[in-house]
Write a structure and sequence with these properties.
By secondary structure, the chain is α/β, with parallel strands linked by helices. The chain is built from 20 helices and 21 strands.
Length: 489
Amino acid sequence: MNYNPSIYEINTRVFIKKFGAGAKLNDIPDSFWDKLSQKRFDYVWMMGVWKTCFSSIEKYCFESELVNDYEKALKNWQKEDVIGSPFAIDVYEVNESLGGLESLVKLKTKLNANGIKLILDFVPNHFNADTKLLQTNPGIFLSVDKESFNKDSHTYYQPDKNEEKYYAHGRDPFFPAWQDTVQINFFSNEARKYLTGILLNLVDLCDGVRCDMAMLAINNVFKNTWAGTLSKRNTEPLPTEFWLDVIKTVKNKRNDFLFIAEAYWNLEWELQQLGFDYTYDKSFTDRLKNDPALSIKEHLGANMDYQFKSLRFIENHDEERAFSILGKEKSKAASIIISTVPGMRFFYDGQFEGKKIKLPVQLGREPEEPVNNELVEFYNKLFSITKEDIFKKGEWKLLEPVTSWEGNFSFHNIIAWHWTYQQEKRIVIVNYSNVVSTCRLKIDARGYPEIFELKDLLNNQDYLRSAEEVFHTGLYIELKPYQSHIFSY
């Protein structure tokens, strides 16, 4: 049986400040976790708990592009608000400002007692450009010669001006190098052994990891990203894939330890084959933002093995806020979709309250934003429906809306699916368009009374319909723009 879990992301270093100056991880009140538990969240991702390097902030965090992002997000930002990227890690030790290891252990105990598992960051591609590991474990990083540094001092750097040692900054091949990072050499056995050791230690501290830019560690991707540097060093790929080896090793120690991949470039399926439990479904996010209902339906026609391992979201710390991009009604419709299709359902702190401002990860303070009470009520209602076993453990099937009368093509705007679990049945129907749309949906009502009841759980309405009609002709549906039904029958 497949299970469709849900996960909640928290920008830890910013979030913790809600609970007073100097608040630690274990100071987050029980009432907050109780609310997530009542919504039946299975995982919480505490993003950004690891130590970073204060020294790197002044060097790398005030580039003009970043400053523009700060200005856009936080009008009255001050220099002390810039605390550096949580993805430029010094070492995998809990940040002392969050209470250190003791506070994390207490938090995990509290979460697990509430039925929630803890996810933490694993950033395989790089460490902080000023990491102490450059002194203790220099062999794990991608080193270069002085000539390379002189030719391209943006991609390569010299950590210590008194030493003739040069390294590559971490990078995504489609963008300039991340200045505040140093690149791991995935074709080094020493590097792989070191990263495996980190993960084996994390098995005791959390219940899984969200792996940043996971596809960068794939042999072909790493080779193509650093082709010139690797050829100069006469470095050859290792015979096996990093992820295949490390996930197998870690799961041999703890089989239920979860691996989530941040993944792009249509490499999601490959990462699933390498052992990942879930991979980002960014293409689904983009379709929900930009495409018509038919495109979304097409995406949901993918192989079910792939879908059950897909992580569905409409916002996270990298994305613009859904309320800002989609607007209220469309963001509600998109939320219903990601909450009721197979796979892991992903939500970001502030999403339920309708936050509009995307906060750069380098900032340690967020702006005050009003709470959208209508959206809060909507999400409370949605989770009261989707927390039930039928949406977690049920069998899912995509439905085929048909035209309600000849010549009416608005049925293309409607997407629908069916859930069954034991004796329960649900139908989710969404008009994912900005016009009133109609369709008919054929429902197997065999065994039901001739007149039977459909309960719209989302809108608190009941409908009496003919079993013969919905079976042969189809249930008539008419929905306003971006409106939905969730029927129980």
